[in-house]
Amino acid sequence: MSSSSFSSRSATSRRPVQSANHQTLSSGSLQPTVEQAPNPRPISQFLAFGFIVVLGFLQFLPATHFRDPSDPFRKWVPFDSNLSSSSTESRDSSNENSSFITKNGGNDGIVHIVSWMVCLDLRVLAVLANSTLSSSRYPELVSFHFFIPNGHDDKVSYYKLKVLFPHSNLEILGQDEVKGEIMATYSVGEYVGPSFDEIAPFVIPIVHPSLSKFIYVSPSVVMKGRVEQLFGLKLSNYAIAASEDCSRRLSAYVNSDVLDAIQRSDAKPWVSRTPYAKDACLPDLSLVLIDATKLEKDLVEAILWWSKVLNMNKRSSPNPAVALALYNKHLKLPASWMVSNLTSSSETSNERLILRYAWGGSVCSESW
């Protein structure tokens, strides 16, 4: 009886508590109120926008570091600080030099280097191209034109050189058209057999009019000087510029009495009206600067004519016929541009801007 009454009282005493809790939750008087976020200040929005803009502009700055893909640790490596500036200066200087070359006769702003090979040896052309590009301040403005036997059909030689000099401007050309032009003049005048490699420099611009100004150079040389400086030389009224080799005099190759007799009896336009200096230095045709726009049209005929009247049946080096055809008709280059042999004294070699070496032409072949 007592336990029953106790349970009844306990249950009676708990019911009001449940009711009170229910009333408290239903009324919601104890739930906290959520306040609205404060409005952002205008200056904060402006600063945030400016920060984003600054970050955007930073993307246009040059990179200062890079990661080497071969580095397993992927460390950041700083760039050379002078890389960007030197690249910009190189482009600016290249444009300035191109303008300078254009003003001095190079219509396209390119330094054209022409060479003629009697017998193909790509090693010789590689030495010439490498030394020229290495010594040039603007190698991107240098363009090579190599005339080789069967050049029009020889694609292999071109690709071999391109592998060595992938970024250079070069072309391989055939000799048939140039030889044909020389033979056309030769057959008309019944002259003695011409030496193509000596006459070719003056016929090449006839066959290839795009080569209006170029440097003709012997293939077996090492270039130490900057070809752009030579190319920018002002020729004035001359069409040809060549150095003079005073170790070879005209009197050593031509009889003075014969020369006087020719001068008295012939009235050809290429025969000098003034007496020839018997001790005149012979021009060195290993390096010649040619402006084709000023070349005399009868220059090739004059060379062939002199070879005939001097009875030059055997080839001599140098050919006095070329020297007489160019007598008083070429600009003398500075002595530093005269081709010197590598076997010369070290003092002479250091002063020269171009050196000749023995390349063994008798054993050259069409394969390499």
UniProtKB/TrEMBL annotation:
Composition-biased stretches, type Low complexity, lie in: 1-15
Q: What pathway, per the record?
A: Glycan metabolism; pectin biosynthesis
Composition-biased stretches, type Polar residues, lie in 16-36
Q: Which domain of life is it from?
A: Eukaryota
Keywords per UniProt: Glycosyltransferase, Transferase
The record's GO molecular-function terms, alphabetically, read: glycosyltransferase activity
Task: Tell me where the signal peptide lies.
Answer: none
Q: Tell whether Signal is among the UniProt keywords.
A: no
Q: Which InterPro entries match?
A: Glycosyltrans_8_dom-fam, Nucleotide-diphossugar_trans
Q: Name one GO cellular component term.
A: Golgi apparatus
Region Disordered: what ranges? 1-36
**PANTHER family given in the database record:** GLYCOSYLTRANSFERASE 8 DOMAIN-CONTAINING PROTEIN, LIPOPOLYSACCHARIDE 1,3-GALACTOSYLTRANSFERASE
Q: What is this protein called?
A: Hexosyltransferase
